Amino acid sequence: MNPYILAILLFGLGLGTTITFASSHWLLAWMGLEMNTLAIIPLMAQHHHPRAVEATTKYFLTQAAAAATLLFASITNAWLTGQWEIQQITHPLPTTMITLALALKIGLAPLHAWLPEVLQGLDLTTGLILSTWQKLAPFALILQIQPSNSTTLIILGLASTLIGGWGGLNQTQLRKILAYSSIAHLGWMILILQFSPSITLLTLLTYLIMTSSTFLVFKLNKATIINTLATSWAKAPALTALTPLILLSLGGLPPLTGFMPKWLILQELTKQGLAPTATLAALSALLSLYFYLRLSYTMTLTISPNSLLGTTPWRLPSTQLTYPLAISTAMTLCLLPLTPAISALLIP
Amino acid sequence: MLKILLPTIMLVPTIWAVPAKYLWSTTLSYSLIISLISLTWLKSSAESGWSFLSPYMATDPLSTPLLALTCWLLPLMILASQNHTAPEPISRQRTYITLLTSLQIFLIMAFSATEVIMFYIMFEATLIPTLVIITRWGNQTERLNAGTYFLFYTLAGSLPLLVALLLLQNNTGTLSLLTLQYTPSMQLSSFADKLWWAGCLLAFLVKMPLYGAHLWLPKAHVEAPIAGSMVLAAVLLKLGGYGMMRMMIMLEPLTKELSYPFIIFALWGVIMTGSICLRQTDLKSLIAYSSVSHMGLVAAGILIQTSWGFTGALILMIAHGLTSSALFCLANTNYERTHSRTMILARGLQMVLPLMTAWWFIASLANLALPPLPNLMGELMIITSLFHWSWWTIALTGGGTLITAGYSLYMFLMTQRGPLPAHIISLDPTHSREHLLMALHLLPLILLISKPELIWGWTA
User: Fold this and answer.
1) One domain for residues A97 and A23
2) The pTM is what?
């Protein structure tokens, strides 16, 4: 892509999120979200492949619908309460509509159906941006409005963890697996929202780090299906040895970083008296763990002297910058002992 | 405490930095030195029971024998793995020993943890190296299924445990073992409390394993390489027993009624798995089911909550750890020579490898709990305390002892006695490494005859 156009689009992407972060007026927040959507559309469609264009169209339609709902809800709130402050939204009708609109924006179940198909149509870099950067602006709004209708939020949360787990079980395409993993993690974030928004923020940040590691590993191996992962031992042996740990961290196994948000969420849920919800959410994480385990089996635990599972591709030297991957992998694996420090920083 | 933990952690850079031809001898000698230093823990002196106290780690007479067993096992695992990893490239060998060492680090931290959540995290952390050992270095395609069963059975039990521990923390304000024994007992009466009781114990019962939830064990033990089988049988099962013994204090008074079905399951499991052993054709599978059988007795001994029960459970855990690991090493000597686990393919070995027969004999006798070995002491104390609880259990435990003797002798006679099959024409003679391995397993067991106070636990 023309570097000037790319620069403008990335600038627009950054600006949109920043506007939403900085806004206290609903209209400005909506503008930031729309800028984000519009800036990423050409990035998604840049390869002019029909599948990419299909993904772009689906993304545009869902995000536009969500933004329109958001606009409508904020106007309703202005009618009902006479003001446009983001943090002063209290009337239950606009609050619920905004919660659902933002749920559609990020891909929470039961509003999740677009995410696997859209992610599948994108290349891994744009997919990475969709899974990480595009979640920041809606979450900024979610964290500020602090919805309090507990039933809706718990249903959104548990449905997302269960659907994210079950949906990913039958997939062989890596991007769809990552989409379902995203849905499951978003479920965990929403589950704790009404009790402790700071734990939601912590979960979001750890999820961003872990999923960046995974996307970057797949990019380095140029892998889009599970079979391609089987030859990664020839391209990057040390990374092949580390990737099961990254995947198990995504799955939330101690002593890796991914355990930290789950631990803090379960602790807060039990303090609030929701032990059965906590148990159900914890057990639903086992579903996602199964497909992460399957990926680790294919990639690392069945390498030679066992027979190859995939056809060997051309092994050209990779030109990818490995510095971000190194940092995100180190953080994905080693941050659990810092839990007291991180929770002191984030949780008041 | 740190004088054991830090050298074990520093063993990891040692593994990667040492020149290739000194890898195995260096790691073996360092881990032996660490295990000898760990024997200093056995002298516990504090009145309160907790020795070598630091804010997060301590030892008491319950955890000390298990810690010594864990530290003792690392050199044995390294000794046992030297042969089968020899054809692999050197960095794979280093990775293998690193996995064994990291498992050791997590186990030391688990057994010496004073905070129950730290124990939980280390309990779960042991899953990852074990999973990699089983699925990467196992030899048959079934190992992937074995790894999945192992991981998911354990996690399905331990996630409710995490919720239960967090509930306990809300209730008592702390999860430090040092103070939990002094908190007033909670009023536990509602149905939710009974679910909480089950949640606390389920993870450990799956790990031990209890008979109904034992399906992961034969798979994992059979498919694992020798070091994996050794550590699984000797130490990882004991994590379940240790966890149960720690949690029992807090679970009163519900245990009096709620433990009934689990005691019955455990005792029935002794009979059932013993009977399955009599029909096994796979040698490692036989030893795996024998592990389930012995651990069923341990589970019953812990659930009965008497001092003889606890002491018997601890003694049996240590003795079974050494015996079972010894049997797996013996089975591995067969496997390395014939690359098959089928018992009838390598029969009558007394003719070919008579020195090994001596070790098979001692290990089989230990398995069937011959006096004066500590195996008998443990079993007898558990059987006695169960008999005191209910006379009917003697039918199950007595029958269990009989069947154990049956399959242990069956295993010995099948592999050692009888005619030599015609196709065994060239078997490697026994290596001195294998003799050393067996001696290091069985000598501590024999020495414990003279001072069982070391492994008696709190009643010492």
Assistant:
1) yes
2) 0.94
